[in-house]
């Protein structure tokens, strides 16, 4: 179901002229975090070679990103462990970039319990969250396999969420261009 939600988000962002790159924590198969990217990027030991190969492209991608739209399922009323692990590998790459939370579940609650956990985590790693959330309740009947909205509510009422995210990305990009706070 996550693929449906991710495809839908990518399409919504691309409609607004953004380059939307999907980063899937499950596909990356990262080991449990024991050292952050900033600690392994200059470590030339063979021990971290594979990890550097996986993380270096992400670090470059993140550094040029204007924002992060986090698409999350709900796992045990919280964030899926693989997502938390992926998020924790980076820090500076997230600074002064907004995050938007799209959450989903098979239930009518749409993953909002995970979203509340993400609201606490994302600002701690440097990505303040925009005020709005975009839950996708009953994701199996809300989105097609191709990521097309199947409900009128999702098709029509998500525009404000993506407009708000776009505004925050533009505003924070303009401020980053002025220089980082000291």
TrEMBL record:
Pfam families, alphabetized: FMN_red (PF03358)
Entry GO MF terms: FMN binding; oxidoreductase activity
Residues covered by the NADPH-dependent FMN reductase-like domain: 3-134
Membrane-spanning parts: none
InterPro entries from the UniProt entry: Flavoprotein-like_sf (IPR029039), FMN_Rdtase-like_dom (IPR005025), NAD(P)H-dep_reductase (IPR050712)
GO cellular component: cytosol
Residue runs in coiled coils: none
Official protein name in the record: NAD(P)H-dependent FMN reductase
